[in-house]
Amino acid sequence: MSAWQSLSPNVRKLVLTRKLRIVAVPLFLTALLMVYLGLSREFPVILSWALVATLALHGLCARHYLLIDKNKGILLHHLSSLYPIARSELPLDRIAGFCVTKTFLKRHGFSLIVMMDDGQRVVLLRNRALSEMEQYGKHLATFCQQPFQTEIL
């Protein structure tokens, strides 16, 4: 489980890519070993090496984090790898609260949702354990001074 980092009294960051690196490092070492041992010129061997190397590079370059900056008044959700995948900035003054709900069509998955003052619901994280989502949500709510609730039927 990832832990919140306090960058300053008004800035907190939650880095979520540590588990991915545990998988990416062995893939990267496998790709290097395949080159060291020599690749044959057969198409399936070259294709498998390319797939392993690409997955390893994406895993090693992955950046997924939540950043709360009270100085700028934003909640930033960032996801990227070799290229940007998703980025959203939510103004802190428009956040009405945080909640954890059951993920749609998943039996044991839960989502952390930001509820905006206009009724919009923005998913921050999904498909994680309930205890992990509640911990992240409670910390977000406490730091942003907003309410937190769990909506599980």
Explain what you see.
Keywords: Membrane, Transmembrane, Transmembrane helix. The chain crosses the membrane at residues 20-39, 45-66. With 153 residues, the chain is α+β, with helices and mostly antiparallel strands. The chain folds into two domains: 4-17 and 62-151, PH-domain like, CATH 2.30.29; 20-60. Helices cover 35% and strands 39% of the residues. It has helices at 18-37, 43-61, 130-144; strands at 4-8, 11-15, 63-69, 74-80, 84-91, 95-102, 110-116, 121-128, 148-151. The strands form two sheets. The chain has a five-stranded antiparallel sheet, covered by helices on one side. Strand 7 (110-116) and strand 8 (121-128) form a beta hairpin. The longest helix is centred in the first third of the chain and has 20 residues, at 18-37. It is elongated. The mean pLDDT is 88.
Average per-residue pLDDT, rounded, comes to: 88
The CATH topology name of the largest domain reads: PH-domain like
* Structural domains: how many: 2
- Cα shape: elongated
**What strand order characterises the main sheet?**
1-2-3-4-5
CATH architectural arrangement of the largest domain: Roll
Oligomer type: single chain
CATH class of the largest domain: Mainly Beta
The number of helices is 3
Compute the gyration radius: what is it?
19 Å
